[in-house]
Structure formats: C-alpha cells, structure tokens
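TL;DR need structure tokens for one chain.
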Amino acid sequence: MTAPAKPEVKVVFQRPESFTDLTTHYCPGCTHGVAHRLIAEVIDEMGLREKTIGVAPVGCSVFAYKYFNMDFVEAPHGRAPAMATGIKRVLPQNTVFTYQGDGDLASIGMAEIMHAAARGENITVIFINNAIYGMTGGQMAPTTLPGMTTTSSPFGRDVELTGFPIRMSEMLATMDGTGYIVRRSLHDVKNIRKAKKALFMAFETQERGLGFSMVELLSSCPTNWKIDPSKSLEFIAERMVPVFPLDDFKVNPELTKKRA
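>> reply
TL;DR here they are.
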C-alpha cells in the first residue's frame, strides 16, 4: 500500500523584508501597526529598501526606527519635514519619507509641513490622523472633532473657544509645490487596500520627481478615546470620515502616465 501523497505547501504570507521581527509598543487596537505594515510592503514591492531613509519625530511613532528594516533618523517634535528636506537635498538619489501624527504635523510642526509643501520638497509624508495627542496624554489636537472629549477638553471641544478641526490634506493641496495629496482610512479591509495603493502613488510621486506628496491616514486610538478597539473602528467610519472625507485632493497628471 502506497503512502498518500503529501499536499503541496505554498507560502501565502511572509513578513516584509522592510519590517523587523519585533513586537511593537502600540496599544491594542491602534492602527499604527497596520500603517507600518503597508509602508513596509510598498517599499519592498517597489524595490526601494536599500535607498530609503525614514524620519520619525516625537510621538507614538518615536520608536518607528526599531520596526523598519532600513535607515532611519529621529527628529525633534514637529521637525521631521525640515530634517527630511535636508536629507533629500544632500542625498537626492535616496527615497525619503516622514511618519507623523496629527499633533506633531498639524500643531508644533505646522510651519515645517506648510513650507516644505510650498517649496515642493520631493519627499513623501505619511500623516497619521487619530484626532488626538496619543503619546503625551490624550490632549486635544488640531484635528480633534467638535464636541470630542480629551484630557484638555473634558467637556468636549468647544469650537467657539478652540476653533474647528484643521483639514491638512485640503489645505496642502492648494500649494503649487505638491504633487500628490490624498486622504485614506484604516478602519476596514477595503479602505486599508485603498491606503496601500495611495502609498504606492505617493512614493511614485517622489521617484518621478513630481514634488511633495502626502498620504493622510485616519487611524484609531482606543486608549485615549476610551473605547474598545472594535468600537474605535466604528468611530472612524461614523464620526471621523464625515469631518475628514476620503478623497484625492491633488494628483499630478504625470502620475497617470507610464514611466519613459
């Protein structure tokens, strides 16, 4: 009697080469890990790892250099675009990206991001918008929703006192130096797939020398929102998307053409 044939084994999943084999420090339900995975996959699939340099500022992403298997530098709070500008100008052949949260990018780093975009710096920015300061204690951020409670707005954000949420993608899309500005979300599989395609386009914008590119990703923060992880994904869909609509705000027409 012959032994039954063994089934053929196929590899259907493996860790991206651009991703280190470490457990991240992020809270349960936080979608920073999803964003990291997408970036690593895109860099691998585009063959950019050996020439990529990431820039992480202060915030939840402060340890990003531990999770990406590539060159990485640490920037002061809000100053990642300035540091990325210097790196890209000195090493124009390299792929340079920043990974920033909303408090970092839209508050303390507002000047840096606006002027980098206005100058058309050929860098890529991944902007994680979770509508709150994550690492520093859950305070109100420039992107906090009207009425949303935080440690510094315990009765809810009062727009008469603190103004309305800042929509960074819409604002940066008005800059002549920008080549690709879009907003995506990480709250379900469909939108995660769209986010990955957007990251491809953002890095492609840089590779073609088409100017500043940014992908804004709506992300969850269950710990500081004080809701469970599954509810936090619903919060993105039901509360954040109406305030921060998912759309392409600027796409350089050259991106639709094949490379020469």
